[in-house]
């Protein structure tokens, strides 16, 4: 399922629900519907920036490493799979961070699920 974030000053940001949920859990928001007000914006931006820095410091989690191991054959070959390209959480949240920054600058809400 997809979650679409909206703000007056930015293009819509569309994310897969698991990525959106991870972000919104950090902000103590529900994934189905919600709002980040201008009053909450600065704290939300700071929280997400800190999380982005943390994710860049630890780009490959145990889950990703396990997933890579499972997809490779017992002989260590890749069975023709493409090389894994890990996308850090910080990269996934970048479009939403930009939207939050613009909304904060113009004192607008960021909405989803509406």
In what order do the strands lie side by side in the largest sheet?
2-1-4-3
Structure summary, number of beta strands: 4
Proportion in β-strands:
15-25%
Query: Tally the helices: what do you get?
Result: 4
Mean pLDDT: 83
Poorly predicted regions are: none
Profile the largest sheet. 4 strands, antiparallel
Protein name: DUF1840 domain-containing protein
Pfam family, one: DUF1840
Organism: Paraherbaspirillum soli
InterPro entries: DUF1840
Q: What key phrases describe this protein's structure?
A:
114 residues; alpha+beta; four-stranded antiparallel sheet; 4 strands; 17% strand; DUF1840; DUF1840 domain-containing protein
Give a structural overview.
The protein is of the alpha+beta class and 114 residues long. It has one domain. The chain is 51% helix and 17% strand. Strands 2-1-4-3 form a 4-stranded antiparallel sheet. β1 and β2 form a beta hairpin. α2 (38-57) runs antiparallel to α4. It is globular, with a radius of gyration of 17 Å.
List the helices and strands and how they pair.
Blueprint (H helix, E strand, L loop, with lengths): L1 E6 L2 E7 H10 L7 E3 L1 H20 L4 H10 L17 H18 L3 E3 L2
Antiparallel strand pairs: 1-2, 1-4, 3-4
Helix pairs in contact: 2-4
Give a concise summary.
Helix content is 51%, strand content 17%.
């Amino acid at each position: 399922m997809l979650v679409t974030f909206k703000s007056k000053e930015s293009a819509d940001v569309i994310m897969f629900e698991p990525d959106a949920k991870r972000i919104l859990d950090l902000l103590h928001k529900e994934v189905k519907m919600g709002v980040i007000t201008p009053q909450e914006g600065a704290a939300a931006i700071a929280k997400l920036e800190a999380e982005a820095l943390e994710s860049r410091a630890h780009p490959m989690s145990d889950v990703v490493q396990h997933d890579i191991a499972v997809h490779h054959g017992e002989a260590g070959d890749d069975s023709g799979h493409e090389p894994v390209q890990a996308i850090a959480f910080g990269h996934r949240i970048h479009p939403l961070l930009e939207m939050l920054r613009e909304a904060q600058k113009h004192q607008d809400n960021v909405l989803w699920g509406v």
